Amino acid sequence: MNDETRINRVNRFISTLNQARELGLNATDAGEGYLVMELPYSDKIIGNPDTGVIHGGAITTLMDTASGSVMICGLDEFELCPTLDLRVDYMRPAEPRKPVYARAETYKITRNIIFTRCEAYQEGGETIANCVGTFMRIGKEATPKSYRDQITGGEE
Amino acid sequence: MTDPEILCYTQETGDFSRMMESIPYASWIGLQCDRFGDDLIFRLPAKEENLGNPILPAIHGGVIGGFMEMSAAIYLIMSQDTFRMPRIVDFSLDYLRAGLNRETYAECRLTRQGNRVANVMISAWQKSRSQPIATARAHFLLED
Protein backbone atom coordinates (compact mmCIF):
# COMPACT_ATOMS: atom_id res chain seq x y z
CA MET A 1 0.00 0.00 0.00
CA ASN A 2 1.45 3.40 -0.92
CA ASP A 3 1.19 6.58 1.12
CA GLU A 4 -1.48 8.11 -1.08
CA THR A 5 -3.69 5.06 -0.54
CA ARG A 6 -3.11 5.38 3.20
CA ILE A 7 -4.12 9.08 3.25
CA ASN A 8 -7.19 8.33 1.11
CA ARG A 9 -8.31 5.48 3.35
CA VAL A 10 -7.87 7.58 6.49
CA ASN A 11 -9.78 10.51 4.99
CA ARG A 12 -12.59 8.24 3.82
CA PHE A 13 -12.74 6.68 7.29
CA ILE A 14 -12.86 9.98 9.20
CA SER A 15 -15.42 11.40 6.77
CA THR A 16 -17.85 8.79 8.18
CA LEU A 17 -17.35 10.13 11.73
CA ASN A 18 -19.75 13.03 12.31
CA GLN A 19 -17.65 14.66 14.98
CA ALA A 20 -14.45 14.48 12.91
CA ARG A 21 -16.33 16.07 10.00
CA GLU A 22 -17.73 18.80 12.24
CA LEU A 23 -14.23 19.60 13.47
CA GLY A 24 -12.88 19.59 9.91
CA LEU A 25 -10.21 16.97 10.66
CA ASN A 26 -8.16 15.78 7.70
CA ALA A 27 -5.11 13.64 7.13
CA THR A 28 -2.24 15.58 5.56
CA ASP A 29 0.55 12.99 5.56
CA ALA A 30 0.94 9.26 6.12
CA GLY A 31 3.44 6.46 5.80
CA GLU A 32 3.89 2.93 7.05
CA GLY A 33 2.62 3.00 10.65
CA TYR A 34 2.31 6.77 10.95
CA LEU A 35 -0.11 9.54 10.15
CA VAL A 36 -0.42 13.34 10.45
CA MET A 37 -3.84 14.87 11.03
CA GLU A 38 -4.87 18.53 11.04
CA LEU A 39 -7.41 20.27 13.28
CA PRO A 40 -8.31 23.68 11.83
CA TYR A 41 -8.93 26.53 14.26
CA SER A 42 -12.56 27.52 14.77
CA ASP A 43 -14.48 29.66 17.25
CA LYS A 44 -16.83 26.87 18.30
CA ILE A 45 -14.06 24.86 19.98
CA ILE A 46 -12.80 27.74 22.13
CA GLY A 47 -12.53 26.77 25.80
CA ASN A 48 -11.41 30.14 27.14
CA PRO A 49 -13.25 33.05 25.48
CA ASP A 50 -10.86 35.62 27.01
CA THR A 51 -7.83 34.21 25.24
CA GLY A 52 -9.38 32.31 22.32
CA VAL A 53 -7.49 29.17 23.36
CA ILE A 54 -9.26 26.01 22.19
CA HIS A 55 -10.51 23.48 24.71
CA GLY A 56 -8.48 20.39 25.57
CA GLY A 57 -11.48 18.29 24.53
CA ALA A 58 -10.95 19.23 20.88
CA ILE A 59 -7.27 18.23 21.21
CA THR A 60 -8.38 14.96 22.82
CA THR A 61 -10.73 14.31 19.89
CA LEU A 62 -7.95 15.13 17.41
CA MET A 63 -5.54 12.73 19.13
CA ASP A 64 -8.17 10.01 19.62
CA THR A 65 -9.09 10.23 15.93
CA ALA A 66 -5.46 10.26 14.76
CA SER A 67 -4.53 7.37 17.07
CA GLY A 68 -7.70 5.48 16.15
CA SER A 69 -7.00 5.81 12.40
CA VAL A 70 -3.27 5.23 12.34
CA MET A 71 -3.76 1.45 12.28
CA ILE A 72 -5.11 1.94 8.76
CA CYS A 73 -1.51 2.89 7.92
CA GLY A 74 -0.08 -0.12 9.73
CA LEU A 75 -2.46 -2.90 8.65
CA ASP A 76 -3.12 -4.10 5.11
CA GLU A 77 -6.82 -4.56 5.62
CA PHE A 78 -9.24 -2.17 7.26
CA GLU A 79 -10.32 -3.05 10.81
CA LEU A 80 -12.35 -0.93 13.15
CA CYS A 81 -10.49 -0.86 16.49
CA PRO A 82 -12.31 0.49 19.57
CA THR A 83 -10.29 2.59 22.02
CA LEU A 84 -9.44 0.90 25.30
CA ASP A 85 -7.70 3.83 26.89
CA LEU A 86 -6.04 7.13 26.23
CA ARG A 87 -3.62 9.06 28.37
CA VAL A 88 -3.11 12.70 27.41
CA ASP A 89 -0.42 15.00 28.85
CA TYR A 90 -0.94 18.68 28.16
CA MET A 91 2.32 20.60 27.83
CA ARG A 92 1.06 24.03 26.85
CA PRO A 93 -2.09 25.70 25.50
CA ALA A 94 -2.46 25.82 21.72
CA GLU A 95 -1.90 29.22 20.15
CA PRO A 96 -5.23 30.68 18.99
CA ARG A 97 -6.15 31.08 15.31
CA LYS A 98 -3.63 28.45 14.14
CA PRO A 99 -4.28 24.82 13.21
CA VAL A 100 -3.11 22.00 15.47
CA TYR A 101 -1.47 18.90 14.01
CA ALA A 102 -1.27 15.42 15.49
CA ARG A 103 1.35 12.90 14.44
CA ALA A 104 0.32 9.40 15.48
CA GLU A 105 2.19 6.12 15.14
CA THR A 106 1.58 2.50 15.93
CA TYR A 107 4.59 1.39 17.93
CA LYS A 108 3.41 -2.15 18.57
CA ILE A 109 0.77 -4.25 16.86
CA THR A 110 -0.15 -7.58 18.42
CA ARG A 111 -2.87 -10.07 17.60
CA ASN A 112 -5.28 -8.46 20.05
CA ILE A 113 -3.98 -5.00 20.88
CA ILE A 114 -2.54 -1.99 19.05
CA PHE A 115 -0.34 0.42 21.01
CA THR A 116 -0.16 3.99 19.75
CA ARG A 117 1.74 7.18 20.46
CA CYS A 118 0.69 10.63 19.35
CA GLU A 119 2.06 14.15 19.58
CA ALA A 120 0.08 17.36 19.03
CA TYR A 121 1.96 20.46 17.87
CA GLN A 122 1.64 23.66 15.88
CA GLU A 123 3.72 24.89 12.99
CA GLY A 124 7.05 26.18 14.24
CA GLY A 125 5.91 25.66 17.81
CA GLU A 126 6.60 23.38 20.68
CA THR A 127 4.66 20.27 21.64
CA ILE A 128 1.13 21.00 22.86
CA ALA A 129 0.24 17.53 24.09
CA ASN A 130 1.40 13.93 24.09
CA CYS A 131 -0.87 10.93 24.09
CA VAL A 132 -0.52 7.17 24.38
CA GLY A 133 -3.39 4.87 23.62
CA THR A 134 -4.34 1.23 23.35
CA PHE A 135 -6.87 -0.11 20.89
CA MET A 136 -8.53 -3.48 20.73
CA ARG A 137 -8.52 -5.61 17.60
CA ILE A 138 -11.97 -7.07 17.21
CA GLY A 139 -11.19 -8.44 13.75
CA LYS A 140 -12.23 -7.17 10.36
CA GLU A 141 -15.27 -9.46 10.33
CA ALA A 142 -16.77 -7.39 13.16
CA THR A 143 -17.19 -4.55 10.67
CA PRO A 144 -19.72 -4.96 7.82
CA LYS A 145 -18.09 -5.59 4.45
CA SER A 146 -19.97 -2.72 2.84
CA TYR A 147 -18.41 -0.32 5.32
CA ARG A 148 -14.92 -1.78 4.82
CA ASP A 149 -15.32 -1.39 1.07
CA GLN A 150 -16.40 2.20 1.56
CA ILE A 151 -13.12 2.92 3.38
CA THR A 152 -10.82 0.99 1.06
CA GLY A 153 -12.69 2.17 -2.00
CA GLY A 154 -13.07 -1.49 -2.99
CA GLU A 155 -9.39 -1.57 -3.92
CA GLU A 156 -8.43 -4.47 -1.60
CA MET B 1 -15.92 30.82 32.66
CA THR B 2 -13.59 33.57 33.89
CA ASP B 3 -16.34 36.12 34.38
CA PRO B 4 -16.79 36.43 38.19
CA GLU B 5 -20.32 37.74 37.75
CA ILE B 6 -21.40 34.59 35.88
CA LEU B 7 -19.66 32.43 38.47
CA CYS B 8 -21.47 34.20 41.34
CA TYR B 9 -24.79 33.89 39.54
CA THR B 10 -24.20 30.16 38.96
CA GLN B 11 -23.17 29.55 42.56
CA GLU B 12 -26.18 31.41 43.93
CA THR B 13 -28.86 30.05 41.62
CA GLY B 14 -27.58 26.62 40.56
CA ASP B 15 -28.53 27.63 37.02
CA PHE B 16 -25.62 26.68 34.78
CA SER B 17 -27.08 27.92 31.50
CA ARG B 18 -25.22 31.25 31.50
CA MET B 19 -21.93 29.58 32.37
CA MET B 20 -22.33 27.05 29.55
CA GLU B 21 -23.22 29.79 27.08
CA SER B 22 -20.02 31.61 28.00
CA ILE B 23 -17.85 28.61 27.01
CA PRO B 24 -18.09 27.97 23.24
CA TYR B 25 -16.83 24.36 23.38
CA ALA B 26 -19.29 23.46 26.18
CA SER B 27 -22.29 24.81 24.29
CA TRP B 28 -21.07 23.30 21.04
CA ILE B 29 -21.03 19.73 22.37
CA GLY B 30 -24.23 20.52 24.32
CA LEU B 31 -22.93 20.17 27.89
CA GLN B 32 -25.44 20.85 30.66
CA CYS B 33 -25.26 20.69 34.42
CA ASP B 34 -27.80 20.31 37.22
CA ARG B 35 -27.22 20.85 40.91
CA PHE B 36 -28.84 18.61 43.52
CA GLY B 37 -27.96 19.94 46.96
CA ASP B 38 -24.19 20.19 46.74
CA ASP B 39 -23.90 17.49 44.07
CA LEU B 40 -23.42 18.24 40.40
CA ILE B 41 -24.61 15.97 37.62
CA PHE B 42 -23.32 16.79 34.15
CA ARG B 43 -25.35 15.87 31.09
CA LEU B 44 -24.57 15.48 27.44
CA PRO B 45 -27.83 15.14 25.48
CA ALA B 46 -27.79 12.95 22.35
CA LYS B 47 -26.55 14.92 19.35
CA GLU B 48 -25.85 13.71 15.80
CA GLU B 49 -22.80 15.95 15.47
CA ASN B 50 -21.12 14.22 18.43
CA LEU B 51 -21.14 10.76 16.85
CA GLY B 52 -18.07 8.80 15.82
CA ASN B 53 -18.58 5.17 14.82
CA PRO B 54 -21.47 5.30 12.32
CA ILE B 55 -22.21 1.57 12.47
CA LEU B 56 -23.36 1.27 16.08
CA PRO B 57 -23.78 4.35 16.07
CA ALA B 58 -21.70 5.62 19.01
CA ILE B 59 -20.54 8.95 20.42
CA HIS B 60 -17.00 9.84 19.35
CA GLY B 61 -14.54 8.81 22.08
CA GLY B 62 -12.95 12.25 21.92
CA VAL B 63 -16.28 13.92 22.68
CA ILE B 64 -16.75 11.65 25.69
CA GLY B 65 -13.25 12.71 26.77
CA GLY B 66 -13.98 16.40 26.20
CA PHE B 67 -17.28 16.10 28.07
CA MET B 68 -15.58 14.50 31.09
CA GLU B 69 -12.66 16.91 31.00
CA MET B 70 -14.93 19.96 30.86
CA SER B 71 -17.13 18.50 33.62
CA ALA B 72 -14.10 18.05 35.87
CA ALA B 73 -12.95 21.65 35.32
CA ILE B 74 -16.39 23.10 36.11
CA TYR B 75 -16.72 20.82 39.11
CA LEU B 76 -13.37 22.12 40.42
CA ILE B 77 -14.31 25.76 39.91
CA MET B 78 -17.56 25.19 41.78
CA SER B 79 -15.94 23.33 44.65
CA GLN B 80 -13.54 26.14 45.56
CA ASP B 81 -14.18 29.04 47.89
CA THR B 82 -12.12 31.51 45.91
CA PHE B 83 -12.02 31.60 42.15
CA ARG B 84 -8.98 29.88 40.70
CA MET B 85 -8.80 28.87 37.08
CA PRO B 86 -7.94 25.16 36.73
CA ARG B 87 -5.47 24.25 34.00
CA ILE B 88 -5.46 20.64 32.91
CA VAL B 89 -2.12 18.85 33.26
CA ASP B 90 -3.02 15.32 32.29
CA PHE B 91 -6.03 13.19 31.58
CA SER B 92 -6.26 9.41 31.68
CA LEU B 93 -9.33 7.84 30.19
CA ASP B 94 -10.59 4.24 30.18
CA TYR B 95 -13.35 3.36 27.73
CA LEU B 96 -15.48 0.60 29.23
CA ARG B 97 -18.53 0.42 26.98
CA ALA B 98 -19.63 2.02 23.73
CA GLY B 99 -21.36 5.34 24.33
CA LEU B 100 -24.56 4.94 22.34
CA ASN B 101 -26.47 7.78 20.72
CA ARG B 102 -28.39 8.78 23.83
CA GLU B 103 -28.03 11.10 26.80
CA THR B 104 -24.82 10.64 28.80
CA TYR B 105 -24.22 11.61 32.42
CA ALA B 106 -21.10 12.32 34.43
CA GLU B 107 -20.20 12.96 38.03
CA CYS B 108 -16.89 13.96 39.56
CA ARG B 109 -15.08 13.36 42.82
CA LEU B 110 -12.22 15.36 44.24
CA THR B 111 -9.71 12.69 45.21
CA ARG B 112 -7.11 15.08 46.49
CA GLN B 113 -6.79 18.82 46.64
CA GLY B 114 -3.28 20.11 47.32
CA ASN B 115 -1.99 23.67 47.33
CA ARG B 116 -1.47 23.80 43.62
CA VAL B 117 -2.64 20.52 42.15
CA ALA B 118 -6.02 18.81 42.29
CA ASN B 119 -6.77 15.19 41.38
CA VAL B 120 -10.30 14.52 40.10
CA MET B 121 -12.03 11.23 39.27
CA ILE B 122 -14.78 11.31 36.66
CA SER B 123 -17.32 8.62 35.88
CA ALA B 124 -19.65 8.68 32.87
CA TRP B 125 -22.70 6.49 32.29
CA GLN B 126 -25.85 6.20 30.21
CA LYS B 127 -28.24 3.45 31.24
CA SER B 128 -27.18 3.01 34.83
CA ARG B 129 -24.61 4.61 37.07
CA SER B 130 -23.44 1.13 38.02
CA GLN B 131 -22.51 0.46 34.39
CA PRO B 132 -20.13 3.29 33.47
CA ILE B 133 -19.25 3.78 29.81
CA ALA B 134 -15.97 5.49 30.78
CA THR B 135 -13.95 6.44 33.82
CA ALA B 136 -11.22 9.06 33.91
CA ARG B 137 -8.72 10.69 36.19
CA ALA B 138 -7.38 14.19 35.72
CA HIS B 139 -4.78 16.44 37.32
CA PHE B 140 -5.35 20.17 37.29
CA LEU B 141 -3.02 23.01 38.19
CA LEU B 142 -4.80 25.74 40.11
CA GLU B 143 -3.65 29.25 39.42
CA ASP B 144 -4.54 32.41 41.28
Describe the structure.
- The complex is a heterodimer of chains A (156) and B (144).
- In chain A, strand 3 (46-48) and strand 4 form a beta hairpin.
- Chain A has four helices and eight strands; from the N terminus they run ααββββαββββα.
- Chain A has 156 residues and is an alpha+beta fold.
- The model of chain A has no long low-confidence stretch (mean pLDDT 95).
- Chain A has helices at 3-14, 18-23, 56-69, 145-152; strands at 26-31, 34-39, 46-48, 53-54, 83-90, 100-109, 113-121, 127-136.
- Chain A has a single domain (3-152), classed as Hotdog Thioesterase (Thiol Ester Dehydrase, Chain A, Roll).
- Chain B is α+β, with helices and mostly antiparallel strands.
- Chain B has one domain: Hotdog Thioesterase (Thiol Ester Dehydrase, Chain A), CATH 3.10.129.
- Helix content of chain B is 28%, strand content 37%.
- Chain B contains four helices and six strands, in the order H-H-H-E-E-H-E-E-E-E.
- Chain B has helices at residues 4-13, 17-22, 24-29, 61-79; strands at residues 32-36, 39-44, 85-95, 104-113, 117-125, 132-143.
- Chain B has a six-stranded antiparallel β-sheet.
- In chain B, a hairpin with a 6-residue loop joins strand 5 (117-125) and strand 6 (132-143).
- The longest helix of chain B is centred in the middle third of the chain and has 19 residues, at 61-79.
- Chain B is globular and about 45 Å long.
- Chain B starts with a helix and ends with a strand.
- The mean pLDDT of chain B is 94.
- At the A-B interface, helix 2, strand 3, helix 3 and strand 5 of A face helix 3, helix 4 and strand 3 of B.
